[in-house]
Amino acid sequence: MAEQNYHKQEEQKNALKLRSLTENLPPYVRDFFRGIEPTTESRTRIAYAYDLIVFFRYLHENNYYFSKKESKEIKLRDLEELRPMDIEEFLDYVKVYSSPENGEQRANVQSTIKRKLATLRSFYKYYYMRELIKYNPVELVAMPKIHEKNIIRLDTDEVKELLDHVESGEKLTKTELAYHEKSKIRDLAIMTLLLGTGIRVSECVGLNMNDVDFKNDGIMIHRKGGKEVTVYFGDEVKAALLDYVTERKSIIPADGHENALFLSSQKKRMCVRSVENMVRKYTQTVTLTKRITPHKLRSTYGTNLYRETGDIYLVADVLGHSDVNTTKKHYAAIEDERRRQARNKVTLRKD
Question: What is the pTM of this model?
Fold first, then answer.
C-alpha cells in the first residue's frame, strides 16, 4: 500500500477530529469553521473548537439565562444576550476549570486566556460581519496584557556539548544507552537538522526521502498554509544527513511508510511527540535549568543566524515568519546588543 502524502494525512486526521468536536456544539458553529477554513490552519481550528466547547459548557453551567439549555440547544440569537461583563466572567472562570474531556482540573496562564478571548472574537466577528447577530460584546473586552518572557535558547557551548552527547550517548541511562546504539545516527541527523536549519518539528517529521537534495544542499518542506519552500543546509547538516540516509536505505519500512525520511523503531514515520521526547532526553544531559523543546532549538538557530548576519529580514525569511515584526520581537535583545556594540563605530573627529 503506497504511502499517502504526510501533510494530506494530517489534514484529513484533523478534519475528522474537528468534525467529532463540533458534534458537541450548536449546529451553526459548523458555518463558522467552514468560513474560517481558507485563512486558518487545521490545528488552529481544532484549538478553537476546544475553546468553544468550554465556552458553551460554561454558559450552560454558570449563566442563569442559559441554565435550562444544553450547549447544543443555545441559539445564535442567544449569544446577543451576553454583555462584556459576562465575557470577563468567563475569562476569570478559565483561569482554573475542569476539562470537558476528562474532568481534570486545568489552570491556564495569561497567554492561554488571551487565546480563548481571541477565539471568541473571531467567533462573534464571523456572525456580526454577516449580519446574523446585531451585537458583539466581545469587541468591548480588552485583551489581557502579556508580560514578555525571555526567549529560551541554547548557548554555543551547549549546542556543541549536546551534539557530542547525541553522538556518544554520554550521560544517558543504561536503558537509554541500549536503544541509543540503534538510533544514534538517526538522532544525530535530526538534532543537527533542527539546530542547523531552524525548521519546525512538524516540517521535520513530514520530510520524505526525495525531499532531500544533496546536489544543491537543500530540503523541500511544507510551511504553514501548505506552501512548499526549499531550506538550505550547511556542511555539518549534510554530513549528518548523508550518514543517516545511507543507513535509512538499508531499512525496510512498514507498509504505508515507504517514503518517510525519519523512521521510528517500528519502522514507521516518526511523529512529532517522538521527536519532542528525543529532544528532551538529550537536552537534559546538557542543562536542567532550561526546558528545551524543538521550538527552542529553532530559536537557537534563529539567534545564531542573526548574530552572524545581522539581517533580520533574512532570519524572518529562513524561519518562515510571515511578519518580520514577529522575528523582531523574538530577537529584540540581540538587536539591542548590536546597537550597543555599534555605538563607537562612527567617528566624529579623527585623530
Answer: 0.80
